[in-house]
Amino acid sequence: MNKFEQLGLNESLLRAINDLGFENPSEVQEKAIPLLLEKDTDIVALAQTGTGKTAAFGFPLIQKIDADNRNTQALILSPTRELCLQITNEIKLYSKYINGIRTVAVYGGASITEQAREIKKGAQIIVATPGRMQDMLNRKMIDISKINFCVLDEADEMLNMGFYEDIVSILSTTPDEKNTWLFSATMPREVARIAKEFMRKPLEITVGHKNSGSSTVSHEFYLVNGRNRYEALKRLADANPDIFSVVFCRTKRDTQAVAEKLIGDGYNAAALHGDLSQAQRDAVMKSFRTRQIQMLVATDVAARGIDVDDITHVINYQLPDEIETYNHRSGRTGRAGKSGTSIVIVTKSELRKISTIEKIIKQKFEEKSIPSGMEICEIQLFHLANKIKDVEVDHEIDSYLPAIYEVMKDLTKEEVIKKMVSVEFNRFINYYKKNQDLNTPSADRGSHAIPTDGNVRFFINIGSRDNFDWMSLKDFLRDTLGLGRDDVFKVDVKEGFSFFNTEAGNLSLVMDTLNSMHLEGRKINVEISKNDGGGSNSRRRDHNGRNKRSGKFENSSSSNSRKGNFNKGGGSGRRSRRS
User: Fold this and answer.
1) Which of 97, 373, 559, 568 is the most buried (most CB within 10 A)?
2) Is 212 a member of any domain?
3) In the 8-state DSSP scheme, what is residue 562?
4) Whether the model pTM is above 0.70
């Protein structure tokens, strides 16, 4: 039985849910839908971005609408044009088997008279941005004085964007006896003021902890000098070949400048900010959703309408002016049950903000070091090897093979492989061997560093293609090796391989246990990576929140050391990111 059937939804909605392929309701849907169906009540629902809030209010709203009454019965306010259109499309999909329900989107950048005309034809549900709704009310083009329901979606984002006065004015135009449903990721003072002034004894639903971050997102910070911020960004991108990310900057000027630098350096990047026309914004978002763009550089306001489930990383190139905004940024990844990583690039003067954010999101950051050129070369080389191994051969090439064999007839198999991967590798090594270490000696954030006996960086030949992400691989290693919760760390999962660290004392346990195992018929291979993933200055947080300095483990004579490790720094200059 589809679990949505147990929530009290009618047959028409269940048919639409079946068409959409929904099987199990999310936590916020499971809590909100039965409550909103059973009671005429005001409600405050706190849940992170990407947890299914639209369906949580959309399904009960549609079921309560009188389809035979053409008057406007519900108003949904959302912060941006993109989110307004997205909600409108979803409401239409949910209600497609209910004859007579019409939903109209009201937003800036389109004809206001055309939108008013659509509403006059009969629209039971209006989805609107606050600015355009207020404009229509001022012109007396719309009547919301008799609505039964008002939904404030992403309430904290609307208020962060400066819509407080518009929202107060709009709500003052609606009837007191309506039901108000407020959905928000966080509960800042302004949202609490709205709830107190315009809601009647609202019931509260909280998914996770109030104002906390998502459990599917890991949080990392990298400490650099301010002048090295952009170079650090490039290294982080190079260390994650399959990156699909949003890079946040504070200002429109910085957003455009960083995007232009990335494009000039050969990355598939684009800017998204308020100075772009709507046509330009739509073109950028279309390219991003189809992954033609791997790094979308955006301001907070412009990114409000981004709704993409597969974002691997959120990179805070600069921390936001309002620390609470960090939660919205990080919520762009780790969505729909998938894991994600939120990265912050900080200078020493900003370190105190990390502690403040930790208190807000109720999660700890892991301090990591900017990857060295050697580590990036290693990651990129194995990424290329796996890409070559998995490439689908187009047999149109067969007719060219005799000539190619003739060209390479004097080369051994090993020489062919070495030359083939060197085509990509040489670009990295030639770039990064000239470049400096970008890491800044770490401040202790209020506690003294505690020396350890050192830790080891391992390479393992399993990755995301084996259905691992950083969380599940960490759990697999910890359980397989019988280690404690914090004994496996710095887990970096790539497509066909991964890296992880553990204390030097676990070396024999790791090598003996994992190298004797098979995963779905394939032998697991674990080796020591000479790139320790952090160097002698790297630190990690122990479970008490203290900083530990991790020493660098040296083992040049080990028979298990990977052959062909790179002994020089390496890297990337101008190159394509189209892979």
Assistant:
1) 373
2) no
3) P
4) no
